[in-house]
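Please, structure for the following, as tokens.
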Amino acid sequence: MAQAEIILSLSVVALSIAFIIYDQVTKRIPTRLVDHQAPRGRYGLVEASTHSLPARAGGVDIIFVHGLGSNPDTTWRATRRAPTPDAREDVRPDGERYVTWVSDFLPEDLPRDDVRLFFYNYDSYWKRDALHTRLFNLGDALLEQIHDKICVAEAERGRALIFVAYSYGGLVVKQALVRAQLANPKLRNIAERTKGILFLGTPHRGSSFSTWGRGVAQALLPLGSNPSLLAELEAFVAIDREDLRVFNFYEQRPTRIFRLWFLQWEKLCVREPSATYEGPRVRNVGLSVDHKGLNKFGSRDESYAILLSKLREIVTSSACPRKHLYTVPLETVPTYTQRDRLWEELEAKLQIRHEKASVPYAAVLYGLGGAGKSQLALKYAEDKRDRYNTILWIDAASEEAVRSSFERCAVAVGLPDHRIKQQESALEDDSAVQAVLRWLRARTEADEEWLVIVDNADDFTWGLQKIMPKGARGSVLVTSQDELSHRLIPQGCEQIRVGDLSPLEGTTLLLQHLGCDPDSVSEEVRTSCSEVAQQLGYLALAIDLAGAYIGNDAVPEQALTQYLKDFKRHRDELLQMDVFRGLRPTEKTVWTVWDTTLQKIAKDHKECRPDLLLTFLAHFKGAVIQDEVFRLAALGTTTIGDALASEIPLDLQQFFPVDREEWDKFRYRQSRDVLLRYSLLKRVDGTWPGVTMHGLVQWRARQTVQTDQMQQQWRWWYTMFIAAACHQIKEEDHQPEFRRHLMVHLPDVSVSEVWDDGRDVEMHELFIRKTLGRAYYDEGWWEEAKKLQVQVMKTSKTKLGPDHPDTLTSINNLASTYRDQGRWEEAKKLQVQVMKTSKTKLGPDHPNTLMSMNNLASTLWKQGRWEEAEKVQVQVMETYKAKLGADHPDTLIHMHNLAFIWKHQGRHTDALALVKSCLQARQRVLGLNHPDTLSSLVFMEEWSG
């Protein structure tokens, strides 16, 4: 009896201990019937990554299936052990930080373009409120989810499937595939598309806990070992198919089952014999983690890396290689030189999305012909072959070139109806054009992005805009000389101006032609390359052609030196040379590169003649041609006389007419804007806005004037234009600050023009030289002024006579220049001659005579010859008093000058008294605030002190 009581007591104790253990193990397992414990995630197939792209046939879908008793919110989540900057953090209210490796790591570690990630969440709770669902029902539910959600589109049905199943989830996957292959023809495609399975601790032969016996197992129900389900898998035979690869991952560390005070129980939940099996395409891999660690990775540690490598292995073998369609008939030249700033700008702007545009991404490379736009577009196509699947090249140089390009693209794409010819159809109705455009528009989110490059889009008149590619998956890159080419793609097209090469880029391009290493080349060669690039204005095409020419010589130093000499003597021949025709990807030379544009401008804008304006501007000497020059010339032509103004033809005068004493610049603006549009001119902003042109454009524009006689005529027109501007600026005292900008445009008029028609232009040249000489003088360019003034004086003596007032004025002007140069004796000699002749011919009281005397006094004064200066100045002042009166402003000027002479003679009292008298008179006559009055006041106060 006592023994029975002992046994009973021990049984009670054992049951109590078992109950405590059971409660400790299961009390933290959540129940879906309690709101705050129920999972937040949806059941069924759930997208695991927001980075997933639309389905593409040949891609891979990976489905993650959790195990028994799992909460979908946390089953793949682990505490972050080593935070990584590229992983998204999941922060719980308690402040702990977690990482979900499926959505945080894999999107970055797998090829994103081909892979989609999904969770399969199902109700797997096994305590209290567990659903007693048979295994085949769970398998059927998985199949239906796959069929209904990711096998809808045709492209999706062509994608491979990979399952990653944890513990009990592996049994669900195996059951689903068995039923799909054997029991359900509608779903058989799912089994056939399955290319790989990663089992993470799946109990293929039952859990190690089954050795406890069914009764104990029912009491404890440890992870992954529900006996009521495992009983149905005892006879399960692993699926085996030739194209199916399987990896069985098993734990190598025991899992802590429970811990009660000092008591602790650890055990391998699914031992290696149960978690693995053998097969021809089956590999078994152990990980140094416990059972829970098979599906929870807090960092990219060694175990994660092993699993990732196997997953990549299956993905790589399962994804069908993409066929990249690349139909670009050209290649970048071997000497292509990278232009970093432009390249970065192009890459950035082709990533700017425009939702309202006909294509989401579009950019135009525009600029002067020969600047390297096409080469930059070719380089972009070559570098982005893997980014875009379908890159097409359309040559838009002419309508025929466009048709031919679309024919080529239609064949490459494999469109069947492009060969249907339509007699004399409009470009937009061409069968090949329509076929390719339809194909591009039909690309959906399931397809990869395409790129179409439209090259040489300089002429829009034949309907280029109507055949521009459209589509939601597209990018379009346009190259054009036309600044308005971005309008080919309304509502969203980025613009990138392609200008000249930088000095470093130009030098590098030449060095490549010479086969020289930029880092080790001699300084002599580098300097010569830099000089050649500078001479060619850093225009890419010009430097490339020059490099090809120079590169024929085996000795770079000699070749560069000879080219520079030849360029100075034979520039026209070198720039027109075409010795490499047929050996380069483009047939264009510096001579021909702008032909099409110039012809189009002349044809399309006959009313405003921008071609004529370009030729005229090409004759300007200065780099910047300010609008102000045209305004001055316009007003100047109205004051120089009809005979002179008529020397400029009406075709040119249309650019600077005068209306109500103002320059009417409408026609000029219209023509200039056309040239700006095609980058033949470049706008210059600032205080004096205007335009500038590339040196080689200037050279090419001048070549339109072919005969010597016409070249002479154009120089004459330009000279008359500048003379009119100089004449006007002399009349406008309010803008002398612009004169220094005007000076750079002054032509060389030291040599007379000879006309075949017998015209005598000496009088016109006399006006021109006198006007330009005055401009030089006013700006302080004494030597240039002197040269012209000597010629004016000689011509005046010959044509008008030595005593003519205009002749005397020219002599006086030359004398003033000598005086300012410090050539006192020469100045004095001429001024005495003018004074004597004026007294004889005009009389001693004539204003011109008095002016000559005043100039002589000024020269004597600067020489320090005070007595002589005083004598002449007194005579001038007394004459003005007699002729005009003592208080006349002109009389007061000479009174003021005389006071200065006395001051320098040391006659301080007399000088002060005279300047006081001058001040009082000026206050009465001119007023207190007149500049002359204030000047006298300043000197009086200074001398009084």
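The domain at 326-497 is CATH 3.40.50.300 (Rossmann fold). The longest helix spans residues 2-26.
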